[in-house]
């Protein structure tokens, strides 16, 4: 009987947490069916089965965290025994046959006390309607649970009718009784700081904390900062916006920064590399990660082969990726493979800042706001649009002169936006 094991869903994933089973014991499963929602170090996602047959046993209960490769379920031939094992832990694994404290999913048939006949329907109740569990993103499910909404009553606007965050936000509460609140924790004694409350970080937040601490502890950071004259870029974007048709994507200044970095990375391979395991790594592809604020975390989706893409394509992909992050639809492959990162806080009015390198990358570019300020052109005072950028470098692979040359190339590309191949 083949095992379904905890899959490796990202390059840095070491373990995963079972959030919710999308199939129940006895269900028929086809290859590609969504089987279980898993929380990884980068995102929550629905894992699609690579096995076909009948789900005969769920090994890992919801909320359980398991290492890569550990069994989480078993699938048998169609028509086979659909009962969960009642024999206790799986030999050699130590995992319970079914979640402790939950009823055996194979109760006696009505009128047959003690019968072990397997049920023909899932043990857990199904949503109203056709009995099929509605397709929804993990974020949509979480929001619906918090708001007491019945997902089976919602119409999905996502791909294939999938229910997404926006569908939940515009829905009216179903009126179903909300789950009883958990008992209040004993009130902490008040100190000079007032009362103290605590919150457990999510797996993503824990991963961010660990990776940033490792980055600062192991990568010797140094910083290079320049001001970029963005006046021509401002003019160019204004012309693009005026010429754009209704609904057409207009590249943002951040899209221009991504493109400029991509072109400069192609010319400066050390900036597109990494120092890992005592040696230099250089990559043939230029993949730029773009930092996006997610729900209580920071997520970095990847624009692959950004050096080969036009500004409009970069703009379209960046917006789609950011929306998928906000909707909780982003997948680990879309968060992997970046060779460089751009982090922009200009939209928050931040003039300049220094970022922490996203390991094992060689550098990260921090981008500030564009401000109209006095500048000197040909000996005369004029008005210009200036933007501060700060390059954090890992001194183990990217030295001062090389980092300066890379940053100078980024600046020259932004100051002459025609070079970005609009």
What would you say this structure looks like, in words?
With 422 residues, the chain is of the alpha+beta class. It has three domains: 3-124, OB fold (Dihydrolipoamide Acetyltransferase, E2P) (Beta Barrel), CATH 2.40.50; 133-175, Irregular (Dihydrolipoamide Transferase), CATH 4.10.320.10; 207-420, Chloramphenicol Acetyltransferase, CATH 3.30.559.10. Helix content is 22%, strand content 24%. It contains seven helices and 18 strands. It has helices at 138-147, 165-169, 203-218, 231-243, 253-267, 311-326, 400-415, and strands at residues 3-5, 15-21, 28-29, 34-39, 44-48, 53-58, 65-67, 71-76, 221-229, 273-276, 279-282, 288-290, 292-294, 297-299, 302-303, 340-344, 363-377, 380-394. The strands form five sheets. A six-stranded mixed beta sheet has the order 9-18-17-16-12-15, covered by helices on one side. A four-stranded antiparallel beta sheet has the order 1-8-6-3, with no helix packed on it. Strands 5-4-2-7 form a four-stranded antiparallel beta sheet, with no helix packed on it. Strand 10 and strand 11 (279-282) form a beta hairpin. Helix 5 crosses helix 6 and helix 5 (253-267) crosses helix 7 (400-415). The longest helix is centred in the middle third of the chain and has 16 residues, at 203-218. The radius of gyration is 26 Å and the shape is globular. The relative contact order is 0.11. Mean pLDDT is 81; it is low at 80-131.
